């Protein structure tokens, strides 16, 4: 009974109780798990966190708050668990992953997923005087087959250039089926382990900022364009600086981002 009450209190203050830790005698985390109910099968799943690799965070004051965990499935296979907070009105990432499942140059193999794990509006007091300045976001989780390291871990100029080239082709294939990626960064270009002649050297990752390539302003996040400004196009940055009316991002903005990555 005490454990249930404590868990409820922890949830109220916003901590994710689906992530559990065990500590050693020194009080340091020695083991961790992530457990949730897979929405596609309705069955509970548990993944053991890889304690040798720290999670990757999106370092931004506002936005999707993406966190990527390295973990293992029940057979010891490596997986990547990605949590992100989706603004209301946005298409869930898993929808785009399903659309792109047959594309070779995009990481889309979803092993499990969960949606509506939490909503930001649940953590705001009803009497909040700034409610009109905030937008609700929903926590979603996807589990995909583990990826290689980001392109920044290249070991030769040839590998780096090949990775960017393959990622541009993956971006083209995404666009041809109606999806615009919108977040081209080094972390979202992942090297393929053991690639060789005639094989892909890299794949595109992370579709939580993607939109349909025919969508316009009403389909964008109500908070405007967020993300790593180092890789945003000049056009998008100018819209932010000059408070211009937001236009939908297009493939030219993403191609400019590839240039900055390279």
Automatic annotation (TrEMBL):
Ranges of residues in domain Fungal-type protein kinase: 13-262
Pfam family, one: Pkinase_fungal
Top-level taxon of origin: Eukaryota
Name of the protein described by the UniProt record: Fungal-type protein kinase domain-containing protein
Species the sequence originates in: Ephemerocybe angulata
């Amino acid at each position: 009974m005490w454990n249930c009450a404590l868990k409820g209190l922890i949830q109220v203050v916003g901590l994710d109780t689906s992530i559990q830790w065990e500590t050693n005698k020194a009080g340091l985390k020695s083991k961790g798990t992530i457990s949730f109910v897979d929405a596609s099968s309705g069955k509970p799943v548990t993944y053991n966190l890889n304690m040798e690799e720290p999670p990757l965070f999106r370092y931004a004051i506002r936005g999707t708050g993406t966190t990527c965990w390295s973990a293992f499935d029940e057979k010891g296979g490596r997986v990547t668990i990605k949590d992100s907070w989706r603004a209301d009105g946005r298409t869930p990432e898993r929808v785009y992953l399903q659309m792109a499942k047959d594309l070779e140059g995009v990481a889309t193999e979803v092993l499990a997923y969960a949606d509506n794990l939490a909503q930001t509006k649940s953590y705001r007091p009803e009497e909040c005087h700034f409610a009109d300045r905030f937008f609700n976001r929903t926590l979603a989780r996807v589990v995909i087959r583990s990826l290689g390291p980001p392109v920044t871990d290249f070991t030769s100029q040839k590998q780096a250039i090949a990775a960017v080239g393959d990622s541009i082709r993956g971006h083209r294939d995404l666009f041809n089926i109606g999806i615009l990626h919108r977040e081209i960064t080094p972390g979202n270009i992942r090297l393929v382990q053991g690639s060789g002649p005639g094989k892909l050297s890299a794949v595109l990752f992370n579709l939580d900022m993607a939109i349909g390539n025919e969508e316009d302003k009403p389909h964008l996040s109500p908070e405007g364009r967020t993300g790593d400004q180092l890789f945003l196009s000049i056009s998008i940055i100018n819209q932010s600086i000059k408070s211009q009316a937001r236009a939908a991002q297009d493939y030219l903005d993403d191609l400019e981002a590839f240039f900055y990555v390279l």
